Amino acid sequence: VTGVQTCALPISPDPDPDPTPTPDPDPTPTPTPRTIEDEPVPLAELPDDVVDDTVTIEDEEVPLAELPDDLITIEDEEVPLKGNPFTGDSLPFAAMAAAAISFCGILAFGRRKK
Predict the structure, then answer these.
(1) Cβ atoms 7, 13 nearer than 8 A
(2) Which pLDDT does position 102 carry in this prediction?
(3) Who wins on pLDDT, 38 or 89?
(4) How far is CA 100 from each of CA 3, 91, 92, 106, rounded to the nearest angstrom?
């Protein structure tokens, strides 16, 4: 291809500033109610040679092992109710000091650059 073809569409110099749309012939359609009838569910019929016997299976007793002759009582250990470890309720002094030194360093270097 040696040449380039262009297609120019005509542009209206003065478009209509306030076009009025055509009204919708039926703005709010009225739904037509439909009644759906309940139909019986078709069930398969049993063949003649199948007997409809229901069998109930009873629960059996759970077999238990015999108790040993020498029972041993194991005492529970005491649970400490005091002296729980600290869970970060207080901020350590070393962390506060490091934060203060870092803040002062940022201020000092920030003033030097300006």
Answers:
(1) no
(2) 92
(3) 38
(4) 74, 13, 13, 10
